Model the fold of this input.
Amino acid sequence: MQAKGAFGEGVVRIGGAAAIPAVLRDHGVDPAELLAEAGLSPGLFDDSDNMIPFVSLGHLIAICVARTGCSHFGLLVGQQGGPASLGLVGFLVQHSPDVETALRTLVRYLHHHDRGAVPTLAINEGSAIFGYAIYQPGVEAAEQIADGAIAVACNIMRRLCGPDWQAGEVLFAHRAPPDIGPFRRFFRSPLRFDAEQYALVFPAEWLTRPLAAADPDLRRLLQKQIDELEARTAGDFPHQVRRVLRTALLTHRAAANEVAALFSMHVRTLNRHLRASGTTFQHISDEVRFEIARQMLDDSTMTLSEIAAALDYADASAFSRAFSRWSGVTPGCWRVERPASPGGER
Done:
């Protein structure tokens, strides 16, 4: 367990997973015993501001799934979360003037809560797509974490728009679980598995809804605290590029000049900053693409052509060549040789 207030790449506040002990007890499992098995401090859940490495959270949840036999463990944890579980960022979200500002605030600042994934918001032909994508490599039970995150996102929308709010469709970037009943009961919306991303899809007009309970004065105070956090973490430029790239790849706007424009700089300046940090744009781009590709191969039944299109390759052959260069094996061999994800099926 990292110290309270610790902040580095690949860590997450425990507040988003605060329901793990309760869900374990509901399944007859002693949380203290399981934390010891996972090599984590028994006091991890005593303070929602405690930080845990993102990889350690994935390992913990994988053990939880194995011990409880519950294939929707992540969903059960996430459906007990909401804006308050996101700490300072969640409070800032709740005091936004309208739904769009609230969601864009979450997209802009969630890295102060979660340094292993990125939220996304896109508007396409009258539909809003509010998503969550893990970019931290080597995470066990990634599909469980993402299921929980989409449940939290749904609770955020219900908090902002009213308890009866429903998505037009809920997307999951993994194959259908053995029992989709818990997903149907919680989301109360059409579900689509084997999608390109994890996301809530809903009419974009919801974004204009004002938040009557928002307090402008409190928001200014919260914004000041966020700005101070931003100033302390401004030097981690490669991490910021990884976050932006994960979103840019999903929207097919991941060229170096397009990413540079998002930082209001020329591509030469972007490259210079990355070289000063000991990396390159191409290296980070390959890392992010490789991680997305592994997740899609491991957790979904998407074809190689579909994955190639999602990652903006010309065709499946181009994707296969790149994947073989990264991993030493073809995508097909990778998919055959990998074991089933915790709680999933092959």
Notes: Residues 235-337 form a domain with the Arc Repressor Mutant, subunit A fold (CATH 1.10.10.60).
